[in-house]
Amino acid sequence: MTPRPTGAWTALAITLAVQALVSMAVLTVPAMAPAMAQSLGVSATLIGAYIAVVYSGAMIASLMAGPLVVRFGAIRISQLGLVVCAAGLALLALTPALPAAFIGAFLIGVGYGPITPASSHLLARTTPAHRASLVFSIKQSGVPLGGVMAGAFVPALLIAGGTEAALLAVAAGNLVCALIAEPMRPPLDADREPGRPLSFTSLVGPLRLVASHADLARLASYSFIFSAVQMCLATYLVTYLHSALGFGLVAAGAVLSTAQVGGVIGRIVWGYIADRWLAPRLMLAVLAGLMALCCGATAALQAGSPMPLLLALMVVFGASATGWNGVYLAEVARLAPAGHASAATGGSLAVTFLGVVLGPVLFGLLSGAFDSYRAGYLALALPAAWCGWQLVRHARRVVTA
Asked: What's the total number of domains in the chain?
């Protein structure tokens, strides 16, 4: 049965809001990393380890999402994710110690992990095929939108009330979103199967699904690199601007917001282009090339670089490094076997999240070894360029086959 248009728009609106709030939860600590590091008495380079813990939890939760979504419904699982993110933020706020920080980070990841598989399940059911890339891209614009909110509000909240107030304010926002979603649950979760048994005996099932499909496996491998670039941009930009270029935290947060605005715009534009004119995998190849160029340009920034040039670079960097996800997820949902969109998305995201786990850690180690964040951004350019080349090569083989 084809859902009514109102159901489709409602599904898009609530999944976008949920995505934005959990993304803001993930990026709250990076948006105030120097102050958070000072309060914990650790080096700001440990922010990479924090992100690794967040996405370790997300990776596990994404693999578990499939059966949970089928049994309880996409909206209920999204609400649960919001609440768990809020709990992680509250723990960080109320127990300012390093062990609690990592437990809180893991909880935020567990809350974040099932959100995209849940929304993919819902949108795959409610979205016409010819609008898939655009709709998935609009929903995924919630990720950079959450970054915009983190960059715009968290430093100001930090100055007004300290780290505790900033963390608790974002936690409250997640809880409010969970409450707002409740009236929408009955119609949007109408396909849930309450009697479906839960079986987590094999978390590798979604991974096997992806590995058994050559195109899905190839896309997942590219997402490993793309996600590393995306998260290194979001995780280290404020610290890089603050420590290497002399920016204040509020100004650096504003630049981060600019990059994330680029991501919001980019996701929607790329989704529209992928639906209308350019095949999704060629669109991803273009974005990989832009990522490589922007990584190199960011590494070359100097303290006296003109602000308009910096902001323009950040818009393009954000548009590419955080703009690829919607096109990617729509392609994953399209390639997935019928009825397995959430499982295919969960398996693909496990690989994506692995890039998020390892990327910032390796970035931090490399930057520490060279005593410069420039080395980290420069190193990211090479694998991004390789992904672009591979996507173009594969597209040519498909065309000539």
From this structure: 1
Q: Is the pTM of this model over 0.70?
A: yes
The alpha carbons of the chain give a radius of gyration, in whole angstroms, of 20
Q: Do the domain assignments include residue 167?
A: yes
Is the residue at 361 inside a domain? yes
Dist. CA 15–CA 17, nearest whole Å: 5
**8 A C-beta contact, residue 118 and residue 69:** yes
Phi first, then psi, for residue 340 (nearest 5°) are -120, 25
Spell out the residues 6+ positions from residue 238 whose beta carbon is closer than 8 angstroms to its own.
30, 31, 32, 33, 34, 151, 249, 252, 253, 255, 256
Grade residue 353 by pLDDT with cuts at 50, 70 and 90.
confident
Name which of 271-280, 284-293, 379-388 the model is least confident about. Answer: 271-280
Q: How far is CA 394 from CA 276, 281, 286, 351, in A?
A: 20, 9, 13, 20
Shortest CA distance to 241 belongs to which of 290, 166, 311?
311
**Is residue 29 assigned to a domain?**
yes
For the chain, give the longest Cα–Cα distance.
63
CATH code, domain carrying 11: 1.20.1250.20
Single-letter code of the amino acid located at 300: A
d(CA 77, CA 118): 7
**Residue numbers of the domain that contains 64:** 5-184+203-400
Q: How far apart are CA 120 and CA 349, in angstroms?
A: 11
Using alpha carbons, select from 270, 23, 6, 2 the residue that is nearest to residue 135.
270
CB neighbour list of residue 387: distance below 8 Å, 6 or more residues apart? 222, 225, 226, 285, 288
CA angle 357, 363, 364 (to 5 degrees): 95
Q: Which two tokens stand for residue 273?
A: 């282009």
State the virtual CA torsion across 115, 116, 122, 123 in degrees, nearest 10: 140
Alpha-carbon 249 to chain mean position = 22
Give residue for tokens 């893991």.
106
**What DSSP state is assigned to residue 305?**
-
Question: For residues 384 and 397, what is the distance between their CA atoms, to the nearest angstrom?
Answer: 20
Q: How far apart are CA 292 and CA 269, in angstroms?
A: 20
**Residue 39, pLDDT score:** 76
